[in-house]
Specification:
294 residues, alpha/beta, Rossmann fold, seven-stranded mixed β-sheet, 14 helices
């Protein structure tokens, strides 16, 4: 059941869904406009939206991107909003159609483009016009450096993708699905747009155990890819319910560990609200998610 399918709770539920979506949209619009995380999180650096002493490039290297990949990106495409490297687990091939959910400044789109080559296509979808503007400005630079005209960016919400049925070979996403107020609908949409045999390769955030209420209610944590995360078992069930198979969820604790060790302000604030004797890494993990459409 989607968030607004129950008539008895439709008004309150839909209002809450809109509120969450607007909070996220506003936060990421500020990031796109400033080129940093200052406006959204009150500090600078890397992290899904939790800034730190790590720069965006340093964080990218710690979660698996190579220095060469980062160096060859169009200017400003990497804003430090990643929690994993979905293109590394996607096994992309020439000629494939790839869809990036919540593509932001185009970081993973521009990395996936050369992998699928001139006969392939990479489509980025984002609900924040400011992010789309930023990404589209960099298409010319990407074309000049690669010689490929195979990427595009579309305005849309990941719960209602502007993509045809059974038209995509691989869906990727980087630290975005956890932000959705209706995650089951996102996974139904992923299953809809994938071709039979198509694959999912997603990096996301998940919970190892429930967060204390005071953490879940932090707006900073919501935009920071924390408060919207769900438990691993619930995450797995969403994929299965959407009709996906061969589901694999692989925790990647190094992302949270890196932000905690570099005294990320958001993660410090979360740590202060946790029970004595526990750490952020006891509750939150980055996750590599792979699955296949039957």
């Amino acid at each position: 059941m989607g968030c607004c399918d129950n008539k008895n709770t439709q008004s309150n539920c839909c209002s809450s869904t809109r509120d969450v979506r607007e909070q996220v949209r506003d936060g990421y619009a500020k990031i796109a406009e400033t080129g940093s995380l200052v406006s959204a999180c009150g500090s600078t650096g890397g992290g899904c939206c939790g800034a730190s002493a790590l720069t965006a490039d340093e964080l990218a290297r710690k979660i698996g991107y190579s220095a060469e990949q980062i160096r060859n990106l169009p200017e400003g495409a990497n804003m430090g909003l990643s929690c994993g490297n979905p293109t590394a687990i996607a096994a992309l091939k020439p000629g494939q159609v790839v869809l990036d959910l919540g593509s932001g400044g185009g970081f993973d789109v521009f990395l996936a483009g050369p992998k699928v080559g001139p006969t392939g296509r990479v489509i980025g979808v984002d609900m924040t016009p400011e992010m789309l503007t930023k990404a589209r400005r960099n298409i010319a630079s990407y074309r000049q450096s690669t010689g490929f005209d195979n990427v595009e960016f579309r305005l849309g919400e990941i719960e209602y993708l502007p993509v045809a049925d059974a038209s995509v070979d691989v869906v990727i996403s980087n630290c975005v699905i956890n932000l959705s107020p209706d995650k089951p609908q996102v996974w139904r949409e992923i299953a809809r747009v994938l071709k039979p045999g198509g694959r999912v390769a997603v990096s996301d955030m998940a919970l190892l155990r429930p967060l204390p209420p005071q953490v879940s209610q932090m707006v900073e944590a919501l935009v920071g890819c924390v408060a919207g995360a769900v438990l691993l078992d619930d995450y797995r069930q969403m994929l299965i319910a959407a009709g996906l198979s061969d589901v694999s969820l692989r925790p990647k604790p190094e992302y949270v560990a890196a932000l905690a060790s570099f005294k990320d302000p958001l993660y410090q604030k979360i740590a202060e609200a946790l029970p004595v004797g526990t750490t952020v890494g006891d509750f939150i993990t980055s996750l590599d998610v792979t699955a296949t459409k039957r």
